[in-house]
Amino acid sequence: xxxxxxxxxxxxxxxxxxxxxxxxxxxxxxxxxxxxxxxxxxxxxxxxxxxxxxxxxxxxxxxxxxxxxxxxxxxxxxxxxxxxxxxxxxxxxxxxxxxxxxxxxxxxxxxxxxxxxxxxxxxxxxxxxxxxxxxxxxxxxxxxxxxxxxxxxxxxxxxxxxxxxxxxxxxxxxxxxxxxxxxxxxxxxxxxxxxxxxxxxxxxxxxxxxxxxxxxxxxxxxxxxxxxxxxxxxxxxxxxxxxxxxxxxxxxxxxxxxxxxxxxxxxxxxxxxxxxxxxxxxxxxxxxxxxxxxxxxxxxxxxxxxxxxxxxxxxxxxxxxxxxxxxxxxxxxxxxxxxxxxxxx
Length: 345
Ligand SMILES: NC(=O)C1=CN([C@@H]2O[C@H](COP(=O)(O)OP(=O)(O)OC[C@H]3O[C@@H](n4cnc5c(N)ncnc54)[C@H](OP(=O)(O)O)[C@@H]3O)[C@@H](O)[C@H]2O)C=CC1
Ligand SMILES: [Mg+2]
Prior knowledge:
- The chain starts with 24 loop residues before the first helix and ends with a helix.
- The chain is globular.
- Residues 1-14 have low confidence and may be disordered.
- The longest helix has 16 residues, at 25-40.
- α1 (25-40) packs across α2 (42-50) and α8 packs across α9.
- It has 9 helices and 16 strands.
- The strands form 3 sheets. Strands 1, 2, 3, 4, 5, 6 and 7 form a 7-stranded mixed beta sheet that branches.
- The protein is of the alpha+beta class and 345 residues long.
- The structure holds NADPH dihydro-nicotinamide-adenine-dinucleotide phosphate (NDP) and magnesium ion.
- NADPH dihydro-nicotinamide-adenine-dinucleotide phosphate binds next to β11, β13, β14, β15 and α9.
- GO terms for molecular function: hydrolase activity; metal ion binding.
- Pfam families: NUDIX, NUDIX-like.
- Keywords: Hydrolase, Magnesium, Metal-binding, NAD.
- Residues 193-325 form the Nudix hydrolase domain.
């Protein structure tokens, strides 16, 4: 059934957002204008690449290095060093030109990502003193501040690897130097990297929050409800529909929290919200096709789950403890926000 959700459901549509704290606004603007120019001007982008910083991936696994204290961080290389590595491994320097633009450092250096999957992995690791790590694993190893860049780098490379042809003519498309678009040579159709919009929602009945798990989740992990937007839907409509479909509840109000780019399994644009249902109509009617379980959690139970590490190892024979996605996942932020709000009220 199509549900019409009016915009009055959103409690605070004009909520002000603290975006960057005390960051220097003018240098931020100049960096964004610089990146804009590099996307528009292939020659300027090629020049920037020669003195830029490059994040290497091997078959979409980012290169990390370990510090003496055992901490992992992103291994950014200078473009000149990448050329040296390519030369030593007998690869054409032109491979560098397949890099994609992913940002601009605080020191105004353009940042790129490059997949060297055609080179021998161990040889590159040895030359760089780093290790290529599966992106999910990298999320557990890296500092939270590094995850957006490593995610963006992988997502853009993946998009180019999987969108090399025009969907109308079947011909190979050509990318611009920055990698921000691909163009079909005969019909001029332009393709841009895309994210699929997803609503993720933490539902509350005023006293408890609703957490659910899919059968594919790691054992014991519960998360907020999530669902892809259907064509033409608003965030409010998707949220109401997904809650109705997955747990059979009628949402009464919702509030925007924040958003996140999520690379798994493809790029999703996660829009995170809080929602309430009436405590008089809070009985869960589970859609067993999508979810394995969904239950209400008290504040105490939620705080317990938040304290658990990912993949907890319980004693043999005991049921696995309930835990929630780690901090880099926006689900974790929603759950923490709810717990803080609940303590205040
Ligand atoms: N960052 C975070 O904290 C969290 C992120 N997520 C992410 O949110 C996303 C959505 O959650 P999920 O509950 O799976 O979504 P849904 O509840 O929408 O269910 C997924 C199903 O929807 C269908 N579908 C419709 N549109 C799309 C599309 N554009 N891409 C892929 N599948 C689509 C597919 O069905 P079919 O195959 O039958 O066509 C798919 O199996 C997932 O990518 C998940 O990784 C989820 C929870 C937490
Ligand atoms: Mg879902």
